Amino acid sequence: MSEQLEQELLSVALEAAERAGALLRDGRPADLGVASTKTSPIDVVTEMDLAAERLITDFLAERRPDDGVLGEEGASTPGSSGVRWVVDPIDGTVNYLYGLPSWSVSIAAERDGVTLVGVVAAPMRRETYHAVLGGGAHRNGERVRVRPTPPFEQALLGTGFAYLARRRAAQAEVLRTLLPRVRDIRRGGSAAIDLCDVACGRLDAYYERGLNPWDLAAGELIAREAGALTGGRPGRPADGDLTVAAVPGLFEELQGLLEELGAWHD
């Protein structure tokens, strides 16, 4: 029954993400990043965000009416089935605003606090990543694995920054110390895609402070199922204080260094 449930959840998540991704891709105004006298570009992005979340939640209500939902844009229903959907309709809204390709739709399904299914659709990359607990990670249906472990000084890391000025300043201090110790650092702008890039071998590791459950739920499962280790501060799961995903052999050293540098506080 569990395997049957997981496959049903995966099918629903894939279709919901595909529909929302198509809405966002095809409905984005060509001049969205240009200021207008009629409306703020930010308002348009908010409208698209809300429309995508509404599409997803309506679809979930139709297909899985007894499930709960937690959405970035305010959708919150407890449900009665024990399954909860965690939804980010646009992960990477600034990228979406500017017409950069690294934005995604992130949908995860949890049961009793355990993530069973994760789907991240990146329409402008023409890629969809998915994982089922215990079933490996996939990109466009093909199995993916993390890269072999490099020496720490040759690791390529991904990260992200907060919108709050005080937190950004603290993150810059961490970056200033960390950057000379690794190969390089990338800032992609979508936590979900960054986690999937670890899964696909495009990054050796990723860390960020300040993520919400909808930012990381799907991507973290995909990274883990591809062979990455994930967590937060030492001994804790990934959460808003800190999220770390890295290839084995790199994870503990990076996690320990981030703890030492205080990457978990402002």
TrEMBL record:
UniProt-recorded name of the protein: Inositol-1-monophosphatase
Required cofactor names: Mg(2+)
UniProt entry tagged with the keyword Magnesium: yes
Pfam family, one: Inositol_P
Residue stretches in coiled coil: none
Catalytic activity field: a myo-inositol phosphate + H2O = myo-inositol + phosphate
EC number in record: 3.1.3.25
Family note: Belongs to the inositol monophosphatase superfamily.
Keywords: Hydrolase, Magnesium, Metal-binding
